[in-house]
Amino acid sequence: MYQSLYTENDFEGTRKIFSFLRGINLDVRIKREPHGIVNDNNQPVEYRGIIDTLEASYGFLLRDEFQDRIFTHKYHSKEHWDDLSSHRRVIFNLGFNYRGPIAINVLSTPPLSRWRDFIFQLYQQDKIHNYLI
Questions:
Q1: Helix/strand/coil for 2
Q2: Residues 35, 27: Cα–Cα separation, whole Å
Q3: What secondary structure letter does DSSP report for 92?
Q4: What are phi and psi of 98, to 5 degrees?
Q5: Structural domains of the chain, ranges and CATH numbers in brackets
Q6: What's 32-60 look like in SS3?
């Protein structure tokens, strides 16, 4: 229920649910674990955003579409955590724990110059030529 409310942008409704869930007496390790990963056709949905703040073990992202502030923790993005920095563009998956939405599998997006190189390679291979003319 909370997942559909959140993905339909009912942030006030989800705020009430997560406020209740936070108060449940459960082991903190269970409360922190992401559940309900947002999927489409059994594949995790990829979101884009920017890192708003980043500390040694956690941070907050701003999702592109709605600028909602989403918590992330190093534990759920271990392999790439050291590649992240504040104000960097990222892609991520969205899950939920007992406290609210949580960004997982956070990855830095390639710098613009890499995108230019990629598009140039496609252009040379005549894969996007018609779109650029």
A1: helix
A2: 15
A3: E
A4: -70, -10
A5: 2-132 (2.40.50.140)
A6: HCCECCCEECCEECCEEEEEEEECCCEEE
pLDDT (tens digit per residue) in 50-105: 999 999 999 999 999 888 999 999 998 888 898 899 999 999 999 998 888 999 99
User: Among candidates 101, 105, 91, which has minimal Cα distance to 48?
Assistant: 91
Instruction: Enter the tokens of residue 59.
Output: 């941070």
The amino acid at 16 = K
Report d(CA 72, CA 93) in Å as an integer: 10
% of the chain with per-residue pLDDT over 90? 36
DSSP E strands, the chain: 39-40, 43-44, 47-54, 58-63, 69-73, 89-97, 100-108
Task: Output the CA torsion sign for 93, 96, 97, 100.
Answer: positive
CA gyration radius, the chain: 18
Rounded to whole angstroms, the Cα distance separating 125 from 133 reads: 15
Read off the amino acid at residue 26: L
User: What is the value of pTM for the model shown?
Assistant: 0.74
